[in-house]
Amino acid sequence: MEEKFNVQEELKKLPNQPGVYIMRDENDTIMYVGKAVNLHNRVRSYFRKIVGRGPQIDRMVAQIARFEYIVTDSELEALVLENNLIKENSPRYNTMLKDDKTYPYIKVTVSEAFPRILFSRLMKKDKSKYYGPFTSAAAVKDTIELINKIYGLRTCNRVLPRDIGTQRPCLNYHMGRCSAPCDGNISQEDYAEKIAGALNFLEGNYSPIIKMLTEKMEAASEEMEFERAATYRDLLNSVKQVSQKQKMTDAAMEDKDILAIASDENDAVVQVFFVRDGRLIGREHFYMTHVSENPQAEILLNFVKQFYAGTPFIPRELMLPEQIEDMDIIEKWLSGRKGSRVYLTVPERGQKEKLMELAAQNAQLILSKDKERLKREEGRTIGAVKEIESLLGIKGIVRMEAYDISNISGFANVGSMVVYEKGKPKKSDYRKFRIKTVTGPDDYACMKEVLTRRLMHGLEERTDFEIRNIDARFGSFTKFPDLILMDGGRGQVNICLQVLEELGINIPVCGMVKDDNHRTRGLYFNNQELPIDRRSEGFKLITRIQDEAHRFAIEYHRSLRSKSQVKSSLDDIPGIGPSRRKALMKYFRSIEEIRNADLETLQNVPDIPTNQAQIIYDYFHKP
Fold first, then answer.
1. Cβ(511)–Cβ(403) under 8 Å?
2. What are phi and psi of 524, to 5 degrees?
3. Quick check: 506 and 487 in contact, CB under 8 A?
4. Pick the residue with more confidence: 463 or 3?
5. Which domains are seen in the chain, by residue range?
6. What local confidence, expressed as pLDDT, does residue 468 receive?
């Protein structure tokens, strides 16, 4: 028998070294991962009676069944290991970055003899030159297309100069969009000049290209080549459009990310402004989960660790709104990832502070908008449930179950059970029932069987779990509803009440009364029909639940009908089940071939016994 984990004894064994600690619950699930400069001091602090550390930490500590730790050589190694473990396990008490984005880059294959400009989602150490990251993939693709048009750069995958002259130039050459180095039409030196111009463009120096295009447009116009002049005019307008987007500049011409945060008791948004070569190229916001009761500095610290562990580009500077823990270690870690010095700064005055204020305003705006969306969603769900509570005169409705029956003239009677918790569907708890005791179209009898099976199953699970000392929350049927909704009026409600009485269970039952057009017109509760405002959120929720129960039953009935229609004449032969039917169809190409086969051929079919071969032969050749 496994020895029980003794927390106090294990605390004594903790080393005075840096490392990572892992907290697990009674199901051995990882709840929290943290790093420590000194494991002995840090882990022990969780088990001391400390006032003011917050209810969330207290809840976590109460659930700790055991802990483990991994010793590292340095705090930096602990930081990297902590990041990896959080990303792999997503512990519920760690503040998590809710993001899985990859950002587009412009990749210039400068290591090739005839370089190309490509779109890339990854930044690799492959001797190419990368620009970005950008926040708009469409803008990146437009920029690449514009550069290729202006400079006539190749877009093909041919290996040059090895493949020069081996194939004819592609359509881009004939359309005037490529200088065709694949056919030897341009030297490597001249092509290198075009690439230099493209790199100049990507680095934000638009003046030379604007001057060149203007001169070419005017020359083409003087030569009366108006179509070519119009082409240069369009390219010139595109370049000006790109240059005008880069209005926010920084004289230092450096790469930096400007971070700001807005948070409340439940949510947090981190706003990042991406500045590349001194130009603001885009912004992005990120949601952080599990932020309850955590200070902003801690949320920001978790964002920096998780986001910059995953992004391929590390800027030279990260501007933060406030000091965070372990800034020296974070700087050292980021510098190692980048391969050069990275600085974490907290601006206090001047242009940097203004940019920080702008980012903070954006973060707060996003959080406010999200709050409005959540408020509307709450009205559709929890608010709607409260309306139903008020109408019925009962309180504490969290879980609602609705039932429906589906059949066609009594064929394949099925039942459905859908579950809504806090006004939202909980599809993992949906259940389907194939009616076993009722033949023919008797909806009341079918409903009685469905309810009896569902509730009996729940009672049996509860009893079994009590005997085995298992938490009843882990059962599929043990959780009974706070309200049962029946797809009908008095008759359906009375059937449900009868079942509940027979089983000794007390659950409120409400019927969804329909009008002549099969639309809900009111609720039947406690032997009376209650009118309901059709414009209310409560009415809309009842309608959604009713439609969902009906849909779920119909889909199950349709799937059974489909299966029953897939029937082969082989199914009528005694002794032929799925495996033997499969063996026959694998050996013969059709039923007709089986019908025409002689006895000896049938006896040669793998997995078909001799006596079964005789039965098959007799079936197809009986008079």
1. no
2. -105, 115
3. no
4. 463
5. 7-94 (3.40.1440.10), 256-377 (3.30.420.10), 385-563 (3.30.420.340), 569-621 (1.10.150.20)
6. 58
